[in-house]
Every structure is written in C-alpha cells, then in structure tokens.
Amino acid sequence: MTLTRAAGLYDGAARCAALTGSALGGVLIAALGAENVLLVDAATFAVSAPLFAFGVRGLPEAQAQRRVEPASLRAYRRELAEGYRFVAATPLLLGLCLMTLVTRGLDQGWSAVLLPAHAREELGASIDLGLLNAAFGICALTGALVYGAVGSRFWRWPVFTIAFLIVGLPRFVVAAFTDTFAPLAALMAVEGLACGVLNPIMATVMYETVPAELRSRVLSATTASFQLVTPLGGLGAGFLVDSVGLSSSLLAVGGVYLLATLCPVIFPAWSRWRVPVLPTTGRRARCRGARGRSECSRV
Description:
Shape: globular
Strand content: under 5%
Radius of gyration: 21 Å
Structural class: mainly alpha
C-alpha cells in the first residue's frame, strides 16, 4: 500500500469519529441537556481506555522498541532535542510545522469559540452547530478517502496550497456577513472536501522526509508543539470576541489565517517537496512511479 493511501485511510477513520461525535452531540444536547451529555462523553472515554489497553496488547506494532541504552531523563532530553534539530534543519518540514502551529491555534479558536458563538447568536444554537460540523465531517471524510485512493497521481504542492486557501479565510468571511444557516453549511461542506486532503498530504511528506530511526522523536516534538499552541487559540479568540465583538473577531482571525495559508505560495521550499531531502545524510529520496508516487527510498 502506498503511503498516500494509508494516510488517507488513517485520517478517514479519525474524520469518521469526528463526524459521528459532532452529529450525535448536537442531537443529545437538544434532547438531554449539555450537563448530561458531558457525562455521556466521559463514559465513552471510560469504555475506550480498556478497549485500547486490551485490544492491541498482542500486536507486534504495540510492543516496546529495543533501545541501545536504558531510558532516562537525560536520554529523553537528548532524543527530543534531536527531533527538534531535524525539523529545524529541514526547510520544508520547518515551514510545514510552523504553518500548522498557527493554523491549529486558529482552528481551535474557530471550533471552540467563534463558531459556537455564531451559532448561539445568529443560528439555532446546538442543532445547527451539530449539523454544520456534520456537513464538514462528512465532506472531510470523503475528501480523505478520495485523496487516499487517487492522490498519488497528483502533484502535492498545488493540491495542498489550493486546499489550504479554501479551508482558511472563506468560512470566517461568510460567518461574519451572514446570519443564515444555508450559506455557511454549503461553504463548510466545500471546505470539508478540501480539508480532507491536507492531513494525508502532511502525513505522507512527514513519513517520506523523516528517517525511520528519527520518526518517533520528530513526531513527538511536533505533536507536543501543536498541543501546546492549540489551547492558546481558543483563549485568544475568547479574549478577542469580548474586546471587539464577534464579527470583527471573525474577520481578524480569518485575515491571519489567510496570511498563514499563503506561505506555500511565497516560500520556494514548498514547491520542491515532491523529492524530500534527508539532511542527516545529505541525500535525496528517490520515489518510484509517476508524479511523486509515495514509494520512496534513500539513495
């Protein structure tokens, strides 16, 4: 299986879960009240933990990796630093991570503050919010699966750039200038299709670019950075809404999002990502197949 298809299927599973949760959450809030739905949500985590604990115990992929030296705080710090150094030494990876840092925070501000506030003030509160998220989720799932099936036939840079431009500013503008459900629902469906291709592309580039022996360190470093900045997006959006109002906040956050999504157009490193560079060896990866098919080896 190509990396593109595997990444599409993996992201599709996450999209399916998000779709189900958003749609069901909106219905349950209307039927049971928000407090009771929080208890239902907690119960799903209580069920998930033992399923994960016992369901993957026998899989070889879940076993601990053999280490040359015993695990220690010093080894942990050194290996985490190696992950950050690799990211800093790879221009494409560094740009991808910085761009994702910004957009993750802005997305959190949208999903946790701006969209719920817009639904409460302009739409039908929880039901419309659930339907909007469901429309986005259905189309994002479709986009991830379709890209996983046919994405290796297309150049990644233009697909990624166009998709990110669609995902960014338009939703903020529509929410700022309309108080009806249909236009925002239609736009979020289109944005969902575009958003579905982003994670598979980023995952494919990450796995092709990072050597196998550094993947856990690089992925740990980047994931930790994303998790650190994500709550700040919701905090900043809440402060902005209280300070300048909802419409102005939507336009301000959308403007910053637009600047972030222009990075692949402005910086030349993005247009060269079909053949990843491995800075630890100074060698390039050779990809078999037409148009950057995701079957690569170091040469």
